[in-house]
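job 3f2a | input accepted
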Amino acid sequence: MKAAILVDEINAVKQLHEIGIQGIRPWVQFYRAIHTVLRKDFGQADVGYHFYGSLPPKDVAGSKYFDRKRFFQALERDGIQVHQGICISDRTGNLMEKGVDMSIGLDLFEFSLNEFDLLFVFSGDTDLVPAIQRAKLRSKVVAVVSRLQPARLFKEMADGILFLEDVIGLIGKEHLIPRKQNNPLKERVNHVQHNHRNQPERIA
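job 3f2a | predicted structure (204 res):
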């Protein structure tokens, strides 16, 4: 069996924030957690890890450029293939990410053409729905998404759903970075792990 795990960084981070998590360190722990679910439901598989984000321009972002560069290099050292979009400035000077959704969509279709059996997509972006439709002609597409995320079309189009909270329940707390907010991460993560650790819902 061949499978791939695709993470849409901006959408993924937003969903993590909503459940009280600032980030995952190292990110490979997230992929390994999904890999664990995959082995449980389908047995051994050849799994590719893919991460989609963007690198800001060096002349505009300064130190942030180098921070992002080191982050991507760390992902690659852990065996995660990084797919970079671009950043451009809008009229107010804010950086906008471009090309990432297109890259994910193209890869979904290409992987399906290359006989990947399972494609896990951690996102929720409805812009990916057409690509998921095409990929489903040859592969099974599993949406990785939080229970708090509406993403109705994204969920409906996928062949199955793996809830983010279940994946987080398989990751050790030492790898989860707390998000400072009114609801402490410790309580929320303990709740997630108590209810979901080693008992993720089946993908089908």
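job 3f2a | The radius of gyration is 17 Å.
job 3f2a | closed
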